[in-house]
Amino acid sequence: MSYGVRERLLAPDNRMQVVGIAAAAIVLVVAPFVLGGFQTSLLARTLIFALFATAFNLLYGYTGLLSFGHAMFIAASGYAVAKVVQQVAPALGIESMFGGAALMVVWILALVIGTAMAALLAVFIGYLSVQLEEIYFAMITLSFSMAIWVIANQDIIGSTLEAFGIGGGTFTNGSDGLTFRLGEVNLFGLEFRLVDIADPIAFYLLTLVVFAAGMYALYRIVNSPFGTTCQAIRENPERARALGIDTQFHSWMTFILSGAFSGLAGAMLVMLKTGVLPADAFWTSSATPVVMTVIGGPYAFLGPTVGAFTYEYLRWIIRQYPLLEEFWEFSFGFLLLIVVLFFDNGVYGGIRRLREMIAKRRE
Amino acid sequence: MSEDHAGHSAERSRRLTTGIDRRGFLAAAGTGATAAVAGCSGLGGGGGDTIKIGGVYLLSGIAQALGTSSANAARVAVKQINENGGIDGQDVEIEVRDHGDDPQAQIRSLAQEYNADVMIGLTSSGVTLASAPTIESLGVPFTLTDIGTPYITEPDTDSFGNYFEADDGKAAFTPNMFRTNSNTSHMTYAIAKFVADNYGESRVANMGPDYAYGQQCWDYFKAYSEGLGMNHEYVASEFPSLGASDMTPQINTVLDAEPDLLFTSFWAGDTTTFISQAAEQGLFDQVDDVFDTIGADPTVYEALGDTTPEGIHMSGWYWPTAYDNDNNQAFLDAYRNEYEGDDTTPNIPGFTGGSTWAAIYMYKKAIEAAGSTNSDDIISELEGITIDNDPRGQTTIQENTHQATAPCVIGETSFDADVPYDGAGLVNTQTYTLTRERSLELLQGSGLGPGL
């Protein structure tokens, strides 16, 4: 960005993109002040899922590895966040050290530790998983995430610690999971509740910051030589190897990055839900980013984001009607069928094609 | 290559036109939905001329029958209130939604989009505890009608630990949450007392669903038994997974342990599975008695047909013939009138019926006393309120715990029971109540809170 910023931004190729991003940014910043409480938290949730699905797509759309266990990163990060809020922060005495800003410090700490935990998990599980490809890769990631679900649901960590004489046998609190309350922040005279369901503007804005930073980082990753190498692996692993790329190592690194960003999204999601459940690691939760990405389009950077919006808002519409809600999986399956059958690259591909057609008509 | 493209383009454009139609359809559907929702929330928002009650229950999956019978009882109560002039002259409207995959979204949607003035609901202790912070920040009065966990009505964080702050915290009291059903603490006390009075010290085995509820029931049963001075010998404890289709391995383990009594905490579909498979393996012939915490429900007995063994003891939060008072009769009559022609549901209320009916009438009294639908005003009226026409006899919401002084009921299974379906029911019913003081005394040393 050292020179020619203005020229590059205004170049004909980029102009539309810059205008689009600016417009989206304005809409997202203004939205919470216009929307009510419910819609604001729905939008926050959607942004979090957009980040999650984009992180997932780093492996799927860009590297050609379908992970069916990405919910494990949400869970790893989520339990870490719950532990930070419930125990680590009080033990460190953050409250007395930072006063009114304590909760913001706890928030940052939770975000960092949550992301780190997810990354750490990805280091181990990634190493074992990238030995396999295609359906075997999907199956092994699925097995790992279900193992994590069992560990959380049966509270195996708690029982193990108890056997060594530590704690009272609860660590993940079994099927009830961990629930916490995030209190008030007093920052430079501004007092607000961090996660206020009735008026979630503060948390929404924090979400937007995390979303923007995460998406920008992912965008830089996929457009770097690293990202290009990912695509080479997706297109033809043998040929990539012939070019001297250590595909397994590269896939492992991608897995870790994908896990870390999923963990970042997970930390925000768990704070929005004010709790984490073993079900967050269950395979149905792993299916969510897959479905979002397939709906949105895996072969475009913004595909998963479009998918997340389509998914969450369709889900919202379905929820309004008891009859549709009762069979919501059916309603969703139907939508997925339409997308897979008629669109090349998800809804994003559909939008692009529509745009091309309009351009052609104008000519 | 280029020819290929050209060849496809005609077909592609044809597909595109249909694509637009579909998209157009989706867009139209979306707009329609938004308009409809906006219309709804525009009508009654901010205390208009309708009082809105929002309900969230499990209406699908394992507990479908249970959630449906709560929703039915609530609808009958609302209908009756409307026929008698509403609440303070205002009509009452109720919307009940399924937990779905995201119960908190449903709770938020009802509070923030539907603009519910008061809420009832929930069919899972886990969901209740996980949703408590959400419900607290929404501030709307929320009454639980079907929830077992004692934690949610336990305010003593000093003695039992704050559930939201510590791993082993057991006090999750939430200021705007109330409960009209008797909870796990009542149920397990009742069974422990019944065992102490009728069988004395015995060899006791346990079976329950493998999640927090099953574990809690067993912990509380043991604690109350000890408090009552019973040194039972605990010979086996088995937890088949929730919704298990095959419980025979666990039933065999229990049979091998040769217990005198079997304590179980199955409910809804799990009770049906357990009883039919245990009957097949002859469990009921080999033990003196079997107990169940909340399995006593018409839908369970109807599903089991003639499989239900006679003479075992099952409990619930309500059983239609257990109370001899006019309010109960009025409730039963209203329920029968409404569902007589409906063959999808029994025309007597389920075990959550009494507490749900009571919750609606409790709200009526509180709103009329508060003179408004302001959440805080209603909440302060609810604290200490007496529910006069509770079918289970007059009950009071405890001011400091928000738990109703509701009785639970234990009965003996029999085919002579007065029920409008083919199957067993309960006879020789007894109701049990328990005070916080007595509970604290009995539970001393167990680390468990009364939640009463």
Instruction: State the strand order across the main sheet of chain A.
Output: 1-4
Oligomer: heterodimer
- Spans where pLDDT lies below 50 across 5 or more residues of chain A: none
Quote the distance from N terminus to C terminus of chain A: 35 Å
Strand order of the largest sheet of chain B: 7-6-8-9-10-13-14
Number of helices of chain B: 15
Provide a short characterization of the protein structure.
The complex is a heterodimer of chains A (363) and B (452). Chain A is mostly helical and 363 residues long.
Structure, described:
The complex is a heterodimer of chains A (363) and B (452). Chain A is globular. Chain A has helices at 5-10, 12-34, 37-60, 71-92, 94-98, 102-129, 134-153, 156-163, 201-222, 225-235, 237-242, 247-273, 283-296, 303-320, 322-326, 328-342, 346-362; strands at residues 178-179, 184-187, 190-193, 275-276. Chain A has 363 residues and is mainly α. Chain B has 15 helices and 14 strands. Chain B is of the alpha/beta class and 452 residues long. The termini of chain B are far apart. In chain B, the strands form three sheets. Chain B has a seven-stranded mixed sheet, with helices on both faces. In chain B, strands 2-1-3-4-5 form a five-stranded parallel sheet, with helices on both faces. Chain B has a two-stranded antiparallel sheet with strand order 11-12. In chain B, helix 2 (64-83) runs parallel beside helix 13 (353-370), helix 6 crosses helix 7 (212-227) and helix 7 (212-227) packs across helix 15 (436-443).
Topology (SSEs and partners):
The complex is a heterodimer of chains A (363) and B (452).
Chain A (H helix, E strand, L loop, with lengths): L4 H6 L1 H23 L2 H24 L10 H22 L1 H5 L3 H28 L4 H20 L2 H8 L14 E2 L4 E4 L2 E4 L7 H22 L2 H11 L1 H6 L4 H27 L1 E2 L6 H14 L6 H18 L1 H5 L1 H15 L3 H17 L1
Antiparallel strand pairs in A: 1-4, 2-3
Chain B lengths: L1 H43 L5 E8 L6 H20 L7 E8 L4 H10 L5 E4 L3 H14 L3 E3 L12 H4 L16 E3 L4 H15 L4 E5 L4 H16 L5 E6 L9 H9 L4 E4 L4 H12 L2 H4 L2 E4 L5 H7 L8 E4 L9 H14 L13 H18 L4 H8 L3 E2 L7 E2 L11 E7 L10 E8 L3 H8 L9
Helix pairs in contact in B: 2-12, 2-13, 3-4, 6-7, 7-15, 9-11, 13-14
